[in-house]
C-alpha cells in the first residue's frame, strides 16, 4: 500500500483578493477544477493521479478557502479561467492538462479560448451549456425561478427545482439531511454565492464555437454513462455535435470522479495516452 502523496497548500493574490489551492504529486501539471465545487471532493482522484502528475486542486473564487475575493460580482467562466491561468502560471510548471467537472468544465472551455497557451488538453466533463439546447428559453425561465426561489429564502424548494431541471436524483430524505436543518456559515455563504452570482453566469454562457473548433485538438468532452438523457448529457452531446467530435464516456454519472475515482482515473489515463 502506497503512502498518500504529500500535499502542499498555498494562496495566490489576484486583483480582487486571494485564491486557495493545493498541489500534490510529480510529473506534468494537471488541474482538477469544479464550479461551484471546491477542491475537497477531488481529493481521492487527485491522490490517484499524483503518481503520474503534479495535480493542482484549487478552490474556485467564492468557495471554500477562496472566499477572500470580491463576492459582489458575478463569477463568469472568463473570470474563473483568468484565475486558473494565474494559478497555472504561478506554479511555473505549465502548460497544464485541465479536467473540469460541471461548471468547472465550462471554466476549462473558457480557459482554452482565452488562455490557450496555458493548456495542452482540456477534458470538459458534462458542461451544463444550456444555451446549446433547443429549449433554452424554457430553461432560462426555470433557472430564473430557481435563483429567485433560493434568494427569497426557500432553500429546499430551490434545490428541489434545481435537481428536477438537471434530472439528477436525490431522495427527499437525503436532501433533507444535506440541505435542511443547521449548516455551517461557510457552506451557506458558498451556496448563496452560487445562486446569486454563479448559476446564471455559468449555465447561460454562450461559448465561441468557432474558437473551440480551432482549438478542437486540445478539447475532449466527457460524459458519464449513467447520465444518458439527462440535462448535462444533452448539453455535452450538443457541444460535441457543434465541434464535430465524439464524446468520451466515463463510468458513473455527473459526479463520476467522486463516485468511482479509480475508474475515472483509469479512463483519464487511457484518454491522455491515446492523444
Termini separation (Å)? 30 Å
Helix content: 40-55%
| Mean pLDDT reading | 95
Secondary structural class? alpha/beta
The proportion of strand residues reads: 15-25%
> Tell me, what's the shape?
globular
Q: Helical stretch count?
A: 12
Cα-atom radius of gyration: 18 Å
Q: Uncertain segments of ≥5 residues (pLDDT<50)?
A: none
Strands, total number: 8
- Read across the widest sheet, the strand sequence of neighbours is 1-2-4-3-5-6-7-8
Secondary structure layout plus pairing:
Blueprint (H helix, E strand, L loop, with lengths): L6 E8 L2 E9 L3 E5 L9 H7 L4 E5 L18 H15 L4 E6 L1 H12 L4 E7 L10 H16 L3 H12 L5 H8 L5 H13 L1 H5 L5 H6 L4 E6 L6 H13 L4 E3 L5 H4 L1 H13 L2
Parallel strand pairs: 3-4, 3-5, 5-6, 6-7, 7-8
Antiparallel strand pairs: 1-2, 2-4
Supply the key terms:
alpha/beta; eight-stranded mixed beta sheet
Protein architecture, described:
There is one protein chain. The protein is of the alpha/beta class and 275 residues long. It is 45% helix and 18% strand. The chain is built from twelve helices and eight strands. Strands 1-2-4-3-5-6-7-8 form an eight-stranded mixed β-sheet, sandwiched between helices. The two termini are 30 Å apart. The model has no long low-confidence stretch (mean pLDDT 95).
Short description:
This protein has twelve helices and eight strands. By secondary structure, it is of the alpha/beta class. Helix 1 crosses helix 12 (261-273).
Amino acid at each position: 500500500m502506497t503512502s498518500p502523496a504529500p500535499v502542499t497548500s498555498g494562496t495566490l493574490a489576484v486583483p480582487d483578493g486571494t485564491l486557495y489551492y493545493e498541489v500534490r504529486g510529480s510529473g506534468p501539471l494537471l488541474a482538477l477544477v469544479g464550479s461551484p465545487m471546491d477542491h475537497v471532493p477531488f481529493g481521492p482522484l487527485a491522490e490517484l493521479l499524483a503518481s503520474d502528475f503534479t495535480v493542482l486542486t484549487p478552490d474556485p473564487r467564492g468557495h471554500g478557502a477562496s472566499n477572500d475575493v470580491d463576492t459582489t460580482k458575478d463569477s463568469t467562466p472568463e473570470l474563473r479561467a483568468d484565475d486558473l491561468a494565474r494559478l497555472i502560471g504561478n506554479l511555473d510548471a505549465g502548460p497544464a492538462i485541465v479536467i473540469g467537472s460541471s461548471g468547472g468544465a465550462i471554466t476549462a472551455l473558457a480557459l482554452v479560448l482565452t488562455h490557450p497557451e496555458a493548456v495542452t488538453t482540456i477534458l470538459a466533463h458534462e458542461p451544463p451549456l444550456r444555451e446549446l439546447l433547443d429549449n433554452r428559453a424554457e430553461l432560462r425561465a426555470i433557472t430564473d425561478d430557481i435563483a429567485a426561489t433560493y434568494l427569497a429564502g426557500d432553500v429546499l424548494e430551490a434545490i428541489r427545482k434545481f435537481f428536477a431541471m438537471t434530472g439528477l436524483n436525490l431522495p427527499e430524505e437525503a436532501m433533507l439531511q444535506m440541505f435542511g436543518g443547521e449548516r455551517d456559515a461557510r457552506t451557506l455563504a458558498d451556496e448563496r454565492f452560487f445562486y446569486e452570482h454563479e448559476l446564471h453566469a455559468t449555465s447561460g454562457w454562450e461559448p465561441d464555437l468557432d474558437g473551440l473548433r480551432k482549438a478542437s485538438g486540445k478539447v475532449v468532452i466527457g460524459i458519464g454513462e449513467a447520465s444518458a438523457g439527462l440535462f448535462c448529457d444533452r448539453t455535452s452531446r450538443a457541444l460535441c455535435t457543434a465541434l464535430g467530435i465524439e464524446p468520451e464516456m466515463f463510468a458513473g454519472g455527473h459526479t463520476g470522479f467522486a463516485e468511482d475515482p479509480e475508474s475515472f482515473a483509469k479512463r483519464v489515463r487511457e484518454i491522455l495516452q491515446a492523444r
